[in-house]
Amino acid sequence: MTVHLAASAHAEAAIIADTLRRAHLIDGVPWSHMAVLVRSLRRAPAMLAHALARAGVPVTVPAGGGSLAEQPAARALLTVLAVTADGLDAEQALGLLTGPIGRLDPVSLRALRRALRRLAPIAASMMCWWPRSPATNRPV
Fold first, then answer.
1. Which of 9, 23, 62, 88 is the most exposed, fewest CB within 10 Å of its CB?
2. What mean pLDDT do residues 134-139 have?
């Protein structure tokens, strides 16, 4: 991974265009294997499309125009990132288990719930010796 800092939106667009062009010409990466993700098509500046076109990078804007965060897979990934920082609640757990990441159907979800109920006494007895975070007093 490489991080670039840009002084302006124009400089950022030029860096993106240059990076993609170099990947294609020097490393042989096909254009079809590249993408630029933006927070919103409404917010994506026209200067980015212009910089890409000026550098000879093909530009295709997908139809739909919705936010990336509205896509089920992206929403699931954002949930995973959030729970790693903030912890997991029951609604988030259910969403991850039944969404694009876990893909559990209702039958599999019921089987998982039954298995967890059977294991709850064992897990509870194990938690008494499990290390806890001094900051939160929660198991680590």
1. 62
2. 68
